Amino acid sequence: MFRQKLISKISSKLPLKNGEKMHHPQEYFGKYIFSDAAQKAYLSKTVYEKLKKTMHDRSPLDNKIADDVAQGMINWALEKGVTHYTHRLNR
């Protein structure tokens, strides 16, 4: 049902008029990404810094901070109105 409504809404959109600007995708998709700003807001400073180092070095996530990162992401998602939450475990 949701998919049908979405398709209907998309197909009713008219092409951009001359001079009309297209919105940057980050304006509407970026708000649903656990971005750097979200990480700073939902993680402790220590966990945030360790996570950034992990991402920069492309090293495995330290198990000591994994639960804190997951909890921060869950809290962020709940505030966004999430109704379902899942994650993928790479082993």
Sum this structure up briefly:
By secondary structure, the chain is an all-alpha fold.
Secondary-structure element series: HHHH
Binned, the helix content reads 40-55%
The parts where pLDDT drops under 50 for at least 5 residues are none
- Give the end-to-end Cα distance, rounded to a whole number of Å: 36 Å
Question: What overall geometry do the principal axes of the alpha carbons give?
Answer: elongated
Which features would summarize this protein structure in a list?
mainly alpha, 91 residues, 4 helices, 0% strand
Question: How would you describe what is shown here?
Answer:
This protein is an all-alpha fold and 91 residues long. It has a domain at 34-84. The protein is 52% helix and 0% strand. The longest helix is centred in the C-terminal third of the chain and has 17 residues, at 63-79.
Task: Give the helices and strands, then pairings.
Layout: H1 2-11, H2 36-42, H3 45-57, H4 63-79
